[in-house]
Amino acid sequence: MEERDLVALFNSLSLDEKIGQLVQLSGDFFLESDGALAVGPDEQLGISPDLYKIAGSVLNVVGKDKMLQIQRENIVNSEHPIPLLFMADIIYGYRTVFPIPLALGCSWDLSLVQQAYQILANEARNDGVNVTFSPMVDLVRDARWGRCLESTGEDPLLNSKFAKAMVTGIQQEDENGNLKGIVSCVKHFAAYGAAESGKEYNTVDMSNRELRQNYLPAYKAAIDAGCRMVMSSFNSFNGIPATANKYLMKQILREEFEFNGVVISDFAAVQELVKHGVAEDERSASKLAIDATTDIDMKSPCYANSLKDLLNKAEIEEQQVDNAVWRVLKLKNELGLFETDYRQANNSSSDLNLPDSSRNIARKMATESVVLLKNSNNLLPLKSNKDKILLVGPYADSKDLIGLWAVHADKNDCITIHEGMSEYSDLNHLKSVTGCGFVDDIKKLRNFGNSDIANSFAVDEVDELDEVMKLASSSDVVIFAVGEHELQSGEAGSRTDIRIPEKQRRLMKKVAKLHKKMVLISLSGRPIALTKESQYIDAILQAWYPGIEGGHAIADIIFGKENPSGRLSVSMPRSVGQEPLYYNTMNTGRPDEGQKTRFLSRYTDCDRGALYPFGFGLSYSEVCYKDLKVEDTQNHEIHISVKIKNLSERAVNETVQLYLRDMVGQVTRPIKELRDFKKINLMAHESKQVNFEIVKDQLVYYDYNEKLVPMKGELQIMVGKNSEDYSTQTIYI
Ligand code: BGC
Asked: Which of 19, 417, 457, 730 is paired with 178 by a 20 to 30 Å CA distance?
């Protein structure tokens, strides 16, 4: 629609209709569970039928038919036909489910991630979705937090690059900035990942300098990439919940980032301002939220019931509501919703197939996301049909490989690890047994809600220890496919124990007594503490939740069809007590550099640093680095080069990482910061020179007053395989 027509439509709206545009309700307001149109559970939320009938957007209804049905009904019944916006959580897959974002982070492969997000957006769009609440770009440093699963990791630069790749893949703008995909909503603004003690929904208190230096860059990158929507986070930030936080929302997001798109609250976050204790009631919660330019109230009665009264009593200005409504209408127009004639919408069922091309990307993505953490005596890769292998554990034959947030997926699309391995090994060489369930007390997990998911894990009652011992005795290699239960990560999946659940650890310990060669495939939605396992298991693959093609990808790596190339985008802890744990920490006045004195910054009962550091990951090839050169052009740039050589017979993908340390600043500076990286393919025995450039103007940091100031003096430039294995050169700027 032309802008003038949109203005005319806007001007014709009643106040109720305008407010309706700012209200988002979930599917149960529109449909019964059997798909029939519903009159809406208005009593439950306390929203009057008149208002929910003109609600502007719908949450998490998917399926083209249902959407068309709702859309048609809405259009037919309203005086001013404004199509609804359908928004859903398409976080890392719709029909094609890719690995969880934490795993994607470990691929360090931006273009592949962009392709993956293009696929998920196209599938969602073809099934009627207009907006996805993705990417989630919260920086994560605390493995206790269950939503580590949704983030690409702990580094601001890496997260920013992934944010851009994901937004670009989701929205697919043409050269004129027109949407070809769907709308991307970046979340959760801001600093949700810093929830105190890793406990879900908890308070965030940090300096504004820290916020700007580490937490904001990825949201900013998403917005710079054209992301059209932002979701406010649940947490309070320095005392004020994000949804009502003018510093975050007005000063930073709207003014500094110049974000003109739609801001939506997280689920009932406007209403939760009352529980936070910053609003007396829903009415004042609405005022706080709209004053902070929160446009859409997701799944709460606040705006629906209060905005009119607030306006009538002149406690908010008409312009505030108008601005919010205009932003919503503009977005609908950009999506081309006004051009679709829903009255004549055809009834064709959605055709959501799973083509090989999408599966192939999912397989490639999973392969690149798996991180080889240990490989003693080059146990891996195994030779197919040579060794007798026993695959054991609750994930051995499981299709639960997609984690908690691929809500619209069909688990039956998953290739199990056993199925994947069976393509390499015949029945005489590969046996599989579940062995045990996930946890000792599944009831406890069930009591946390989502019991339908908990119940779907049939293996929880399994106890096949004798069988495991018998089969393991006659095997050469035992592969454990173990890890967290899906319910132990994801939203509201915080844990204080971040090891593999005890039940499975007992099984592994028992088998270890047989002194067989052992491989661990660790599946989890967070960095997991593998300290004990790293002591007695020969080879470890961190496979996260690898998605529908996980079984193939893991098998391809185990049997050497693929050379592992994943690099950790989060530090893997030795113990939960180290959390929050991250590589780009400050030095302190008493850093632990191995001195023989008590008075150092360290723990008395835990070794220094991560068990496996940020950037770490092995392959089946040895790659050597030499000739690091750093040249200050005395101009605008610093040129850096290094030579890498593949010493093996196999092709390999090596992720060359460039870190920097600013030795002296006006405020304490991190001991290293990732500055750039390149993923380089090397054929057998091939050498390459890898070049980086640092533009000096970009060597800045936030001072105590939140102002960007230039780095000065000594800089250490580090280039290497990971955040702890590198060569260093010093320069002065
Ligand atoms: C989550 C969001 C999600 C929203 C809508 C909330 O509970 O925090 O990430 O987008 O629900 O489903």
From this structure: 19
Give the number of C-alpha atoms closer than 13 A to the C-alpha of residue 64, restricted to the C-beta side. 15
Q: Ligand 1 in contact with 299 (CB < 6 A)?
A: no
| 3-state SS record for 348-405 | CCCCCCCCHHHHHHHHHHHHHHCEEEEEHHHCCCCCCCCCCEEEECCCCCCCCCCCCC
Count CA within 13 A, CB hemisphere, residue 85.
33
Chain segment 614-673, per-residue pLDDT in tens: 999 999 999 999 999 999 988 889 999 999 999 999 999 999 999 999 999 999 999 999
What are the structure tokens assigned to 152, written together? 């690409």
Confidence at residue 350, expressed as pLDDT on a 0 to 100 scale? 60
Q: Which residue has a Cα nearest atom 11 of ligand 1? A: 267
Instruction: Say if ligand 1 is within 6 A of residue 266 CB.
Output: yes
Residue 36 has a CB neighbour count (10 Å cut-off) of 8
- Token digits of residue 466: 């004798």
Pocket test for ligand 1, best of 300, 489, 491 (most atoms within 8 A of CB): 491
- Coil/strand/helix, residue 657: strand
Give the pLDDT band (50/70/90) at residue 31.
confident
pLDDT for the residue 16: 93
Name the DSSP class of 31.
Answer: B
Å from CA of 205 to ligand 1 middle: 22
Locate all alpha helices (DSSP H) within 136-260, ordered by sequence: 156-171, 208-210, 216-224, 246
What confidence score (pLDDT) does residue 463 get? 86
